[in-house]
Amino acid sequence: xxxxxxxxxxxxxxxxxxxxxxxxxxxxxxxxxxxxxxxxxxxxxxxxxxxxxxxxxxxxxxxxxxxxxxxxxxxxxxxxxxxxxxxxxxxxxxxxxxxxxxxxxxxxxxxxxxxxxxxxxxxxxxxxxxxxxxxxxxxxxxxxxxxxxxxxxxxxxxxxxxxxxxxxxxxxxxxxxxxxxxxxxxxxxxxxxxxxxxxxxxxxxxxxxxxxxxxxxxxxxxxxxxxxxxxxxxxxxxxxxxxxxxxxxxxxxxxxxxxxxxxxxxxx
Length: 268
What we know:
This is Tetrapyrrole biosynthesis, uroporphyrinogen III synthase. By secondary structure, this protein is α/β, with parallel strands linked by helices.
């Protein structure tokens, strides 16, 4: 039984899927264009000059842009950002940030480590920040730097602004369809038995798959079981009329496989 992951290949997904008894296949749907043009001058000014009291990072792609921006900063620029609180969506994003910028930017040697708050979902981060704002004694509105992509959802910034936060939003990347997507689909096909899985990781990934003309996507969405990495992607699939058979409790391969195995073992 094959699991068709509509994402780029990773060793972790490969190994854990095989350990669970499935055959992994990967179809890269999305590509990114990174831009640090707006971020670099902001980082050079420093948080004090801008009144920034924390940074929101919701994607590993923003970490890539931060790393690129860091390469042109001076040590004086980096020094200004020591101790800035970081608010992050996803353990994998936090791990990538800490590993990629080790001894750099927010993590200079011999300096106090920044406080890092990590949640599984953007809605949970919004809950945390709204509660934090309610407990603040300072009447000055907190000012957060919000690093986001071009297809970010409205829920997080809307809730924070309603709670009194000031946000400076910087677009750090743009998502686009992978140039080889149609070619990949032409050369791979799911089982005709209907026991394969198609697994999706974002609403934009679903939309880009469906946007191909002529559409080769029907077979993937009608002849396989469908799984989603989280409720946002699942809700989007359902709004398009597709049944979602498994949803990961948390956005990780372990929880994704748990949901798939549970369905396969307990379905009628």
